[in-house]
Amino acid sequence: MCQLEDVARAWEGLQACDAARLLATANIPWWVAGGLALDLFRGTSPREHADLDVGVLRCDALAAVEAISTWQIFEAKKGELARLSPGRAPRRDVHCLWCRPAGTARWAIELMMEEGDHDVWIYRRDERIQRPLSSVVQQTADALPYLSPEIQLLYKSKAPRNRDEVDFSVTWPLLPADARSWLHDAISLTAPRHRWLAFLK
User: Which of 108, 130, 133 is nearest to 185 (CA)?
Assistant: First the structure.
């Protein structure tokens, strides 16, 4: 087991299109997440991204791991990394996996595990927030799936860092009215005094 702060800077993220190649054999729903998902929604990138976040349903996590079974895969939890044994599904209390090709020192993909099933997505921080899975993922013109921007901003709203504030400021004005309303209601439910609410009214 190793400490996250010792390795957190050792990233060499792949391109979003690389995820499609790597997960092609998994036959599961997946999507680009994180700040890069917002870039795909806007079609512009206001900042660089060190890593590539890829979302999958927890029920599909083992299939995703098997698609990159030759890689080194670690569970990330509470500031520590623990090697995931081959053929094992991640623990229920682990929400992300750090992944890198075997024999390399730099991480390439962070697999983010979402709750729900193939019909309904559930916000893992508050189960009152749910949506049909079909509305959770959007696609670029070349069919690259990415997490809907209002959901990605909801995740970023918990404890916004400087880069999250940048992502919010350049994304929220572009949200369709229904997406902006949904984000307002979701943040109102989870953090009723959040400063982003004033922009989303």
Answer: 130
